[in-house]
Structure formats: C-alpha cells, structure tokens
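SEQUENCE-TO-STRUCTURE ENTRY
===========================

Subject: a protein chain together with a token-level encoding of how that chain folds.

Sequence line: the amino acid chain in single-letter code, read from start to end.

Question of interest: how does this chain fold, as expressed in backbone structure tokens?
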Amino acid sequence: MLRLLRPFGWAIRGRYRKFWIVRGVRQFIWTRRMAANNGICSIEIANDGVGFFAQLNWCVGICQYCEANGLVPDIRLTGDIYLDRLRGSNWLDHYFDWTNPVGPGELLRRVRYTKRIVDFSELGGSLGSQLSLVDGARLLRKYLRPKPHISAEVEEFWRRIDGTGAVVGVHFRGTDKTFEASRVSWQHCLDVVRAHLRANSDVRAVFVASDEQAFVEFMAASIREPPVCFRADHIRSVDGRPVHLSAAGNGYEKGKDALVNSLLLAKCSTLIRTTSLLSAYSSLFNPELKVILLNRPLAWALWYPEREILQARNTEYRPAAPALAGSLHLSRP
C-alpha cells in the first residue's frame, strides 16, 4: 500500500516545490527589474476586493522590504474601491503624505519599471515577517503620515468628546468578518464594556465605531453614563453586507471613515474590540494602547498585526464564557 501511495507523495511534494520555485523566480525577476529604477521600488496595486487596512498592510510590508534593501518605496493603490478620480489616480495619496527623500519629479525621471499586481502575494514575500508592533508603528511614522485635513478632523472630534479624561474605545466588526473569526454577540461586548466602566470610574466617555449601524444604536441605547459618542460615518451596513464592497456611498468617504475611526480609537485609554485590521491598526498608531480583545482570527487568517497584538503585554483576551470554560482570566494564544 505504501508503495502504491508513494507516487502521490512525490507528486504533492513536487507541486509544493514548483510553487515555491515559481514564487522565487517571480521575486527574482521583479527585483532585477527594480534595479533599473536606480533605487526606487515602484509598485502599483489594483485591488477592488480587499479593505482599506488590508491594502495599507501591504504598503507596510513593501516599506519593510525597501528599508531592509536600501530602496525608496513608490506605491500606488489604483483600485476603484476607495478612489476619487478628482483627487488623483492613487488613492493612497488621498489620505497620506509620503515622507521620503525623492520628490515627484525625481520619481518620474528615475522610474523605468513599475510592478503591477492585484495581491501582495504576487511579490513572493510574506507580510510582516519578523515585524513587531513597534517596528510597524515606526515604519508608518517614517513613510506615511495622515493628511493634515485627516488629522484636523480627528483632533476636532476629540475636543468635542472632551478627550482630556479617560475614554474607552469600542470597535465591533461584523458583516463579512465572520468568515475570518467567530462572531461576538453584542451582549458579550456590552457586558465587557460595563465591567470595565465599573472598575474604572474615571472614564469620561465611550467612543463606539462599527460597520453595523444597529450595533452603534444598541450601544448608545444600552449605556447611559458615561455618554456614548460616535462619528456620523457616511455609510454603515444595515443589511449585513460589508461597507467596503457595497456599491452605495462614495469610495473616498468610506476610506476616510475607516482611517479617522482608527485614529480616534488609537487615542482612547483602553480599546475593547473584535478582530479587525481597522482597530488592529490603532495599535500601530499607538503601540502603548491597552487592548481588550473579544475574539481572535481563525488560524488561517492570523495576519499581521493581529498575531502580535494577541501576544502583547498590554492585551487582554476575553472571549465569551463558553470558550473559556467559565473563566475570564487573561489568556494568551
């Protein structure tokens, strides 16, 4: 029997070898072509099916590669999902200013080859390899800074909720995220928030962000003191469909809602959240942020920076009681 199965084992190993060989060849080819750009790593990503922070995650991975190899990143995100053509053809520029030593004119002169892809995996690398939360935060500060009008909106909202005291942030990601992590009940989220408020009498406000309109309304109706605050986002899901894939609403406004909410959550004293790259990035905008995580990604979806947040010293993991067999003690992955 083993002799009969052996050819199948060889075939499977051969397919895996071929897969890694193809990835290696792809990476070698585009690396050699980038050499013609005189130190510029130029990449265009045209993706309409992946959310704002997933694509920002790709940008961080590219910046990590560039820093390690002495290259200047030139990244363009050109999918229609968050694009406002009146603002330009690269929606990354709608929200961030690049901080690199090469100006637009110099880029135009030096770039002879741009690698055009749909998914980060086409580059042949693994995102977040050997990348800590602190390093990810540093790369963001080094290369990508929110536009002044984005930062101004964050600060104005923070002044309105009296952010001089402790503010608890709550982020609930629903809709299609249930494919990547078990769904958390609204009641469990509310119970954890209430327990935190009882233990911390200095909390002055609760800031809620969610892609589900009904959840925001539930939290606002369930907590009377301290006041519950939330942004008037341009669009939230009312039918279970993910906002970023919906045809409704303006693409630029969807992206701005996501980024501003993430930055506001980063300013909170404690963030109670479900699995989501939006609120995961709050920990990159503020690596010292205390996090209470209510669920965790499935093994195949444990991407950067969620896996690092799960292991961080300032993270508590509090899933619903059945998963903990009655215990609410700190749990590590």
User: Anything to note?
Assistant: DSSP finds 13 helices and eleven strands in the chain. The mean pLDDT is 85.
